[in-house]
Structure formats: C-alpha cells, structure tokens
C-alpha cells in the first residue's frame, strides 16, 4: 500500500520536514533488523482526532526495546507527546502512526550495545489494511508453510523489525497463491496468528483465541479491546490451543490488529468458515469496535487520547 506523505516526521526530539527524515545507509538496524516499532491509529471523534490506546502502545514499545537491550533516550510521557505532536502537525483527523526505535549510524557488527539509539514517529493516512472488500465480506486465508518463529529463537513478545521477515515470507506465499492473508502456526502445528493480526474463532457462542505467549503471537492491543467488548456483549472468551481444522469447523472467525482492525475470515484453505461472512458475533464486535474508536461509546472513552 503506497504511503501518502504528510508534512512532518518527529525525529530525535524535533519535527522535521517529511523529505528530510533520512538515515545513512550504514544505519545499524538496516543491516541486522535491530529496531522495535509500533503501529497505532488515530481516529476522528466528535472532539477531534484521538489516538487509540496510546499509553498501551508506548508501553509495549518500551518493553520491546528492553527485551532487545535497546536503551530509549525518552520516557513514556515524552513519546506520548511526540505522537500527539506528529498527529497534530499532520492536520489529519484520522491516520496510522508508526513510532520506530532504531540503532543509528556509527557502529557496525552484531553487538548492538555501543550503538546510538534514534527515535522517529511518522503518520500517514491508511485505509483498510486488508481491503474494504475484505473488511466487509471477509478475507480468504491460507495456512502458511512458514512456521511462526519459536520463542526459544526469538523473543516473540517484542515487536521487533527483524522478526517480521517471518511474516513477510508468509505474506508473499499467501498473496502469490491468490489469498488475502496467511495464518501462521507454531512448529507443532498450533494456530498462532496472521502476519500482522491476532486470531479469534467463534464456536457455539464462545470466542476462542490462542494463548499469545504459548504460541509466539504478539499480545495484541486490539485483541485486548475486542476481549473487553466481547465480554460486555455477553460472550465468553477462552484462551485455548487450536489447530487449523478448528477454523475449518468454526461458526465464525476473524482477525484483529491496529492496521487491520476487525476483519472477518471468509475461508481458510478454501474451506468456507461458518454460514456466511461476516457472522453475527463478528459483525457485532466489528460494529462496536468501530463505534468505540470513534468516541461514540462512553464506556470505552478511556481508550481515546485526544490530540488537542
Ligand atoms: N500480531 C502481529 C504479528 C502484528 O504485527 C500485529 C500488529 C498484531 C498481532 C496485532 O497487534 P495490535 O496492533 O496491538 O492489535 N501489526 C501492526 C503492523 C502491521 C504492518 O503491516 O506493519 C499493526 O497492525 O499496526
């Protein structure tokens, strides 16, 4: 999806022109994938643009950095302010927000410890990540031949750039085969997550989701919101290990993520999921999520951090 430039990018403490946000080709993170990042969204609300669960995203960014032994020269409050300043400078009502903590130019070699940490925040307008059609009518999913990386090889709780090679391989395989998205499993064949989304399966009125740390899935902030919404709507949510056939036989299934939001799964490996897409529970959660991020539900107003 092409990026539409906005006016400013926050870089190491100041807002610089979009075109001026450049790095040297010998930037450490470019060579070894030693960076951590976040994906956040700001939404239009009746009281202006608001960032969804900003504090939680900044918290996860700092935790990811800690896991990789990257020292971040800014505290949570400064990063929250940086995100809001970048959104405000864009003049946009809604946008995608990409904070990036990376190791800069100056040192080379695998030891990251002597490297200087740099921080950037960029924002741009981003529509439906898996397409409008997918969001409305459901996506076609394919089980990937690439296993999700094992937590003994990579710290799956960290949202680190290098780890996304795994997701990219799975995505390319799925797209080349004519599917919208890949579903990745552990090396033992348990369902983990999409390339950039968490998984929910609906069976007999209950929501089932894989245990994040057990299967090497990212602990999604959207997934957490969806669990709260589901419980508020009266549905039970259960963490359980599942296999691909559990999706083949599901009543409904959907993916969640900041970029993707709530996306129904129409089929997995060419087996239609449930009776039609989206199913009623998926639809109710999707509608409630959309209303929540738009500031239309009082109960979820704490999730919104207003920019102005
Ligand atoms: N799993 C993975 C692997 C993942 O990358 C994401 C977010 C999630 C689950 C859902 O997490 P959360 O956003 O906290 O609900 N993926 C981000 C990056 C997407 C991209 O293409 O880049 C996102 O949605 O912003």
Provide a descriptive summary of the structure in words:
The chain is globular, with a radius of gyration of 19 Å. The strands form two sheets. Strands 8, 9, 10, 11, 12, 13, 14, 15 and 16 form a nine-stranded mixed sheet that branches. Strands 1, 2, 3, 4, 5, 6, 7 and 17 form an eight-stranded antiparallel sheet that branches. The protein has two domains: 8-124, 2-Layer Sandwich (D-amino Acid Aminotransferase, Chain A, domain 1); 132-293, D-amino Acid Aminotransferase, subunit A, domain 2 (D-amino Acid Aminotransferase, Chain A, domain 2, Alpha-Beta Barrel). It is α+β, with helices and mostly antiparallel strands and 308 residues long. It has helices at 28-32, 54-67, 76-90, 132-137, 164-176, 212-215, 221-232, 244-248, 280-293; strands spanning 8-11, 14-17, 36-37, 40-45, 48-52, 95-103, 117-124, 139-143, 181-185, 191-194, 198-203, 206-209, 237-239, 252-257, 261-268, 271-272, 304-306. Helices cover 29% and strands 27% of the residues. The structure holds ligand PPE.
Give the secondary structure arrangement, pairings included:
Blueprint: E1 8-11, E2 14-17, H1 28-32, E3 36-37, E4 40-45, E5 48-52, H2 54-67, H3 76-90, E6 95-103, E7 117-124, H4 132-137, E8 139-143, H5 164-176, E9 181-185, E10 191-194, E11 198-203, E12 206-209, H6 212-215, H7 221-232, E13 237-239, H8 244-248, E14 252-257, E15 261-268, E16 271-272, H9 280-293, E17 304-306
Parallel strand pairs: 8-9, 8-15, 12-13
Antiparallel strand pairs: 1-2, 1-7, 3-6, 4-5, 4-6, 5-17, 6-7, 9-10, 11-12, 11-14, 14-15, 15-16
């Amino acid at each position: 999806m092409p990026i539409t430039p906005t006016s400013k990018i926050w870089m190491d403490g100041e807002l610089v022109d979009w075109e001026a946000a450049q790095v040297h080709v010998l930037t450490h993170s470019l060579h070894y994938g030693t960076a951590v990042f976040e994906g956040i969204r700001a939404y239009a609300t009746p009281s202006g643009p608001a960032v969804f669960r900003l504090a939680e995203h900044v918290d996860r960014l700092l935790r990811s950095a800690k896991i990789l032994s990257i020292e971040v020269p800014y505290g949570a409050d400064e990063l929250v302010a940086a995100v809001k300043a970048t959104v405000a400078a864009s003049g946009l009502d809604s946008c995608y927000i990409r904070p990036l903590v990376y190791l800069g130019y100056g040192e080379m070699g695998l030891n990251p410890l002597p490297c200087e940490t740099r921080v950037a925040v960029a924002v741009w307008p981003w529509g439906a990540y898996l397409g409008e059609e997918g969001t409305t009518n459901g996506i076609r999913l394919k089980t990937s031949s690439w296993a999700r990386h094992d937590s003994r090889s990579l710290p799956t709780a960290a949202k680190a750039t290098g780890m996304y090679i795994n997701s990219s391989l799975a995505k390319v395989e799925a797209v080349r085969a004519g599917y919208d998205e890949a579903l990745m499993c552990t090396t033992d064949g348990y369902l983990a997550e999409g390339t950039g989304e968490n998984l929910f399966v609906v069976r007999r009125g209950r929501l089932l989701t894989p245990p994040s740390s057990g299967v090497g899935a990212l602990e999604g902030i959207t997934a957490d919101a969806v669990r709260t919404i589901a419980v508020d709507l009266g549905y039970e949510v259960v963490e359980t290990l599942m296999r691909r056939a559990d999706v083949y036989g599901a009543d409904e299934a959907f993916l969640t993520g900041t970029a993707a939001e709530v996306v129904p799964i129409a089929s997995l490996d060419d087996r239609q999921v449930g009776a039609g897409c989206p199913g009623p529970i998926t639809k109710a959660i999707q509608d409630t999520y959309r209303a929540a991020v738009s500031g239309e539900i009082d109960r979820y107003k704490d999730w919104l951090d207003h920019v102005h």
